[in-house]
Amino acid sequence: MDHRSIFTPGSLLGIEPAHVIGGVRRTDGSGDPLPVINPATGTHVADVPTASAELVDEAVTLAVAVQRDWGRRSHTDRAKVLRRIHTLLGEHAEEIGRIVSVEQGKPFRDAVGEIGGAQNFFEFAISQQYRDIGEVVATEPDEQLTVREVPIGVIGAILPWNFPAAIFARKVAPALMAGNAIVVKPSEFTPLSAMALAELCRRAGLPDGLLSVVCGPGRETGAALVGHRDVGMITMTGSTRGGREIMSQAAEKLIPVSLELGGKAPFIVFPDANIEQAAKDAVEARLWNAGQVCTCNEITYVHEDVRDEFLARVTAHLAAITPRDPFDPDSTLGPLVAAREWAKVKSMVDTAVAQGATLAMGGDRPPGDEFAAGNWFAPTLLTDVASDMDITRAEVFGPVLSVTTFSTYDEVIERANSTPFGLAAYLYSGSLHTVMRALDDLEFGETYVNKAGPERPQGFHTGWKASGIGGDDGPHGYERYVRRKTAYVGYGPTYGG
Ligand code: NAD
């Protein structure tokens, strides 16, 4: 297949990868362009220019100018533009899905599903046109005291590569609805989806300059965006390392950040659980997007009494999954996003085995010529995993299901909470008492009980501890994109004319 066909003239991506600044496609770059590599084939897809600090400054300066008018428009007026973006997303779902699949590697069918997810973020943002935007507080006679929300101004959004379209929408939709302008820096691995989405927003009638896309490395282009004097808030999804660097740079300017970082979700199976459901979901929650989701099942804790039954069922579900070309309609497992991520996952599996884990399935590239190129990793099962192994502590972000056993409630809660991360957790039990106690005791921002994800746009996706600060989605996620203004209005007889 000719993957370059994603660059057809007249398509959302047009013929040339470019930054989008003030509605104009710009190919000026500083330094070496960044190659985009198809993770399924290892073939070169495009070279993307790197935005200099001057180009970032151009984007932010335009954003400041355009935001003033956008921020004054009514919520319903802004919602109309967002509604048109929502409609165009539906109309172009396959075209954008194709771009997502080619640069990120997920099965095309899932990539089209991701565009549906992107629409959901717009849908929720549109619903905020009717929100309460402030409070009137009891005060003295002849005085009105109001506290209302207003836009921040210009938002800087720094995106990861695992959901290049959905996370674009997750940040752009609430930022725009709240009256802000936004400058997006996509991941180095997946910049093409953001370019196509920016073009779609332009076609939907979003004023030029309100949304710009600048491409380049995090520590250069990303840092220029974070450090720009007129950027008033940073929202970022990515690694804990990147989040720390961004937060310390933002601290210099004293601007707020919302960081959604790595995870180490425990998947806990109590002995009274529906074991078949738990086994099926353990595999699904692990292999979704080839294991590259911050909420993935990173470490499965199964009670020792049900270990054998659980493992037999998990093995059957895992064995039924075979990697396939992302454009095969039956594909459910694609490659890892980059050779670097493949090497990291391989090294984590090898280290776990060296430290005493049992490799029950996979552990390497799947057999077959079709998987010789690209970043393919076979569905992998590690058993006899222990608390002191590296794989129990660090985020794997790959299709590696690690299973360990426990014997008591207190033990498993203590072990699950001992990770530095605190994003998602999974609980499987038929006992209301166990579930409710565990919901109280687990130190994670988001817990799934007797069901797998994903999260919903009206929830609150918030990481505790090393998983982040702030969060996305729902009314609490929307809050990150506003600040508050207090007014004391005197209207007694002695005031005014
Ligand atoms: P990363 O944090 O390096 O990159 C994420 C984004 O942040 C990219 O756009 C990058 O350019 C930018 N960035 C990085 N450092 C920056 C800085 N100092 N200033 C400004 N921007 C900066 O993550 P990665 O290298 O793409 O992935 C590494 C690991 O992070 C993965 O293996 C995985 O464990 C985790 N990760 C988590 C998620 C998630 O959904 N929470 C997403 C992607 C990666």
From TrEMBL:
Residues 30-486 form the Aldehyde dehydrogenase domain. It comes from the Bacteria. The active site is at residue 260. PROSITE patterns: ALDEHYDE_DEHYDR_CYS, ALDEHYDE_DEHYDR_GLU. InterPro entries: Ald_DH/histidinol_DH, Ald_DH_C, Ald_DH_CS_CYS, Ald_DH_CS_GLU, Ald_DH_N, Aldehyde_DH_dom, Aldehyde_DH_Superfamily. Keywords: Oxidoreductase. Belongs to the aldehyde dehydrogenase family. This is Aldehyde dehydrogenase family protein. It comes from Microbacterium awajiense.
